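I would like you to sit down with the record closing this message with an eye to the fold:
=====
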Amino acid sequence: MQGQCLCGEVKFEIEETSEVAVCHCGMCRKWSGGPHMSLESKRVQISGEHHIQRYESSEWGSRSFCKQCGTNLFYQLNADPQTFYLNSQLFDFPEQAQIVSEIYVDHKPTFYPFFSETAEKLTQADIEKMFSGSF
């Protein structure tokens, strides 16, 4: 799959996937302007890396964006920098794309619904349990 930021200066190529994850935490909502939808990939080819600015958004992770147009690009955990959680809106999805997980569901505002009835739903406590010791 190929994707790019709004101005096209940063381009991505990843293996095709149809699995989308949604994060409802406050940081992701501020960063994305709504719930953050991402694709997870360990194999990412990036061109235009000199246009990428990294922001340490917490003690456990960073967020990267295009310096030219401001598009949010990806999130990375400090404990696993080889894994990219890429902004799903950088890519054109196959029709069979589906939301497989929603995290920080206990932080989701009431003014919008959950995106999937079948997706795994994890609270902040669930996430902290999964990653305890990783931060």
The radius of gyration is 15 Å. Helices lie at 26-32, 124-131. The longest helix spans residues 124-131. The chain is about 10% helix and 40% strand.
